[in-house]
Amino acid sequence: MDLTEFMRVFTPQLEKKIEITLPPIYIPSDKEDDFNSRVNPRPVQRETVRATTEAFSRGRKSVFLTAEMGSGKTLMAIWTSKTIRAKRTLVVCPPTLVGEWRKEILRAYPLSKVAVIPDHKLRKDGISDFQLLQAIREDKSLQYVIISREAIKTSLPFERKILWSKVKEAWICPDCFEEIKYETYLRALKSRAFCPECKGALFTEYRRHGRYKPSVENYIKKRMKGYFDFVVFDEVHELKAGDTAQGAVLGKIAASISTLAMTGTLMGGKASDLYYLLWRTSPETMSAEFRYQDVSGFIEKYGVLEKLVKIEDDEDNSYSIGKKRNKESVRERPGISPVITGKFLLDKTIFLRLSDFAEDLSVLNEIPIPCQLHESLKEGYQALTNYINYKGDVENFIKVQSQALQAMLAYPDTHKEEFILDEDGSVVIHVTEVDIPLGETEKEQHLIEILKKSDGKTLIFTTQTKKRNNQPRLMQLLTDAGYRTDILSTSVQTHKRTSWISKKQHLDALICHPRLVSVGLNLLDYTTIVFFDCGYSTYTLRQASRRSYRINQRSKERSEEHTSE
């Protein structure tokens, strides 16, 4: 009997066995419920909220809502706060989404009392975040407090806490006394740094009258104990790093308050992406197998490790017999064991895709467009690819490799002069600037063709900014072609980006770095998205690609274009 026949015959028995082995926390029902909201939930959203509520009622301290971008996570979190009867809810979100959260709360429940930190209007009046937080603590009528993720870790300035060892003649950690590398020392001068060995803090807070002034997060944890009974962390995938202050906030608050951790991109392809998120939300499960810093053990068991062994001949002189020695290097590669889902996520994670809303969605076309390299750029590009030939001749090949790869990504679009330098400042590769008229490269021609065919606004993403900024060239190209175009830059403050975009209704095209709008923003008017070039981050790529493909859009068709050379 082959597998297909086996499944057909024994499906009923297999279903029973699965229900016994893995009893579901929630079984979907057809019961109507609008959660007393002014916004009527879709059937899939209603079931998601009920499942989340049931998980909390079954004793789950933290629940992941892993729902694809555009599926309405914000509203589902707000409805969940009502179904679990939370008196006061704390929302921690990226700075760009503070205003969006407030708007969605009042849209669903217009009579709700909402406080926002930072409140820029109050700041102009001289009221600080701490003063506002103290007022919030006294106000028992508040139902929602929304805090920017940047503000929640705000505290007094710090001073470095690194020791100088006369014996080792080097900077050392004050906790484990291991030598601190120069790069770490420089980082500690500018920001809160941690020891690579013991993860101890290499800084200390300034004292005022012999006492520390607490951070916003510490104030909530110590002074407002019991004030919040539900907390939502939005875009939680951005807290996956092990040594960040923002990530530590998640662990400290989630330890004492029912927590909903939301993201559209839970994993970026590697097992390590999940390690610290699991520690901060389910420490009891992780501690049964691993120590807190044992990320390598987690990767070895549930991820993919690549070991490179290099065999070299070690000859002391021409008369000795050469000895072979092995050099090993281990690095993590993309890949993750499905066991993680069953062991760490299945009982506390709701997975939701936009395809679950199929009846409400427009058609999405994703079209990769290959482009030929301009003839006058081939010689320079070939020179950059030859960086590999310098592997044994340069002092710091890793530095040369990094510079060359970045230059290779940018050169086909910017055509600018490139210098690849060695550690001592000597020039390894020099590529001269090539003057190519606007619209002469095949990629630029394709971009114009895309705009001609678009029946709405076009969003153009490019990662080439700052040193190799090609945004002005693209804007000039589109402006000369008769399209009303503007650039969203970092000069627009994060909390003002939504309103800035809404004021640009007259535009035909908007150019920006994908990271500026990659989380939470609804850009429904931009029916076509063009990735003029792509960066390394799969998180940013996936998040940015769904800025206009959302369940409440009105157009019939969406398209996403990827241009590459």
Summarize the structure.
By secondary structure, the protein is α/β, with parallel strands linked by helices.
How do the strands and helices of this protein lay out in sequence?
Blueprint: H1 3-21, H2 43-57, E1 62-67, H3 73-83, E2 89-93, H4 98-108, E3 114-117, H5 120-124, H6 129-138, E4 144-148, H7 149-152, E5 158-160, E6 163-165, E7 170-172, H8 182-190, E8 203-205, E9 207-208, E10 211-212, H9 216-223, E11 230-233, H10 245-254, E12 259-263, H11 272-281, H12 283-287, H13 295-302, E13 304-314, E14 323-333, H14 339-345, E15 349-352, E16 363-370, H15 378-385, H16 397-414, E17 418-421, E18 427-431, H17 442-453, E19 458-461, H18 471-480, E20 485-488, H19 497-502, E21 509-512, E22 528-531, H20 538-544, E23 557-564
Parallel strand pairs: 1-12, 1-15, 2-4, 2-11, 3-4, 11-12, 16-23, 19-21, 19-22, 20-21, 22-23
Antiparallel strand pairs: 5-8, 6-7, 9-10, 13-14, 17-18
